[in-house]
Amino acid sequence: MTASTLTITRRPARRRRHNGLLYAGVAAVVIYCLAPFYWMLVSSLRRSSDIFDTSLLPSPVSFENYTRVFDPAQGFGRALLNSLVVAGVTTVAALLLATFTAYAMARLEFRFKRLILTLIIATSMFPVVSIVVPLLKLFTDIGWINTYQSMIVPSMSFALPLAVWNLTTFFRQMPDELEHAAMVDGCTRGQAFRKIIIPLAAPGIFTTAIITFIAAWNEFLIALSMTNRPEMQTAPVAISKFTGATTWETPFGSQMAAGVVVTIPLVIMVLLFQRRIVAGLTAGAAK
Amino acid sequence: MSHTRVPPPSPDADVVTGAPAVPARTERPAPRGGRRTVRATSGTAGMAALLVSPTLLVLAVVVLYPTVMALHESLYGPKGLDPETGFISDTEPFVGLQNYADILGEAGERFWNAFWNTTFFTVVTVTLETVIGVAMALIMHKAFRGRGFVRAGILIPWAVPTAISGLLWRWIFNSDGVANALLGRQILWTSEGFQAKLAVIVAEVWKTAPFIGLLVLAGLQVIPKEVYEAARIDGAGRARRFWHVTLPLVKPALLVAVLFRCMDALRMFDLPYILIGAQKNSVETLSMLAQNEASNVRFGPASAYAVILFVYVFLIALAFVRLLGTDLVGDTGTPERSRRFGRRRKSAEVTA
């Protein structure tokens, strides 16, 4: 305590200048990250007549774009529902499988464990298009085009490895002694897993669920390739295909409004659970 | 899903279904696999098989099977008139390596253009992201007040769906948009040309640099203060401390981040597709090329493109692991754990 106050009093000018620079840097980082997002928000609140305004605040504020987005003719509500179903089912299925696998990876010793974990993680780096092309042909042949399962099944290819990796790190961070104590007290390994590990790992499972859900919600290539009927498109695909009053006019206002609608749930999740999400995202990298 | 169809718990069956998931990769971790694990826990092999096999089964169905199918499909030509017999065939004729030969010959221009675009985007965006991301991490690491706020802000670009960010940047880069207003120029960003590449790079770097920043920040936070103090006592200045202390110590975290970003950039699709458009020479990537061929029902060439992209991605990943020693799996776990299991995990730790 005294040492730090001493340093501060010894060179106040330099420290102040240093702090000034630092907070300028912090401001630059925040502006870099938020400015484009802010522009989306501002543009979505302009009237279509002054959409090309470059003022920093919309004047007057208008919800015209939002009413147009939710016009039943646009079918955007359905697209949101589709996104929710696809991302939701993908997340639940991936988590269900990944919880067991990650537990084995973190707790059990078995042959080829490292190899299997490497393979699972390696699949998450797999180019999605390499599986979309053959699956598109297969799904066309078996009549799965424009179905939910045609989007959910390929999504598992990235959601499952992501969930396994995140959960493995979370399980590894939990002390072994917890289960040992439970097993000494007469629990089987299965009971220890169900009654001790799962409740204690709930925050980790929850974080993994958020990260997986965001990844599935943001998916575009699969949803674009597997659907051609507007009522089966997910929200990102639907927005990219919004059409304006004429073919030549891109409806930027409604696209921005729809973009805000799709992004806001994610932004709220990020703001609420930022600490956990950062822990989850960095779990694998920082060892 | 298929987790209901759990095969009986036989330890060896697990290994058999597991090993070939991505066959060519088996050689990577092999050299360090000499660790024998005949331990008190060896009775858990059956349980491990039971827990791991559903995941492997699903991945085999959604990744391995399509990959094999793509390899197979890339050897077949389109349905239609058979040039030799003159009959119209319902089945796709076997053409051998013709699709690959066409890609490198007849359709070569489009393929090489996409190949160079993909490579160019990957090299440029990952380099910029790394530099900006490290700078962001250094700033965040130093800032104590408002760190939570900055961290929330930095997650926003990551959370915005790539498709939406494509639309957002298309709006920003509109000819009457805010980018031109700020620059005082009239640049047609989204028309063919180098400026289209530039637009894609700006949008991509915006979305992903914060991600690298987060991963590097996590790496910075585990560096003990004493290391810096020692360096300072030895007379190392700010620049040398960064170069000789910070960088080597965050290297493992940074390498994993860069590897993941490279893999992601190599399969880039959403951003150029939405920001500029399909079939635009200046920004067409290998993923876009393969998707475009497949959506035009030319599955043979599309599969060949997909296979080439897969091989390319695999070679880059292999280079990372072999040349740079990126440790993906991180079996060493967290610092506390490696301390506890220090003796057992030593062989794995050396590779990290």
Give a written overview of the molecule:
The complex is a heterodimer of chains A (287) and B (352). In chain A, helix 8 (177-184) packs antiparallel against helix 9 (189-217). Chain A is globular, with a radius of gyration of 24 Å. Chain A has 287 residues and is mainly alpha-helical. Chain A is built from 12 helices and no strands. Chain A is 73% helix and 0% strand. Chain A folds into 2 domains: 2-66, no CATH class; 75-241, Orthogonal Bundle (MetI-like fold), CATH 1.10.3720. Chain B has 352 residues and is mainly alpha-helical. Chain B folds into 2 domains: 2-24 and 41-73, no CATH class; 116-350, MetI-like (MetI-like fold, Orthogonal Bundle). Chain B is built from 15 helices and 2 strands. In chain B, a hairpin with a 6-residue loop joins strand 1 and strand 2. In chain B, helix 8 crosses helix 10 (238-266). The longest helix of chain B has 35 residues, at 108-142. The model of chain B is unreliable at 1-42 and 332-352 (pLDDT under 50).
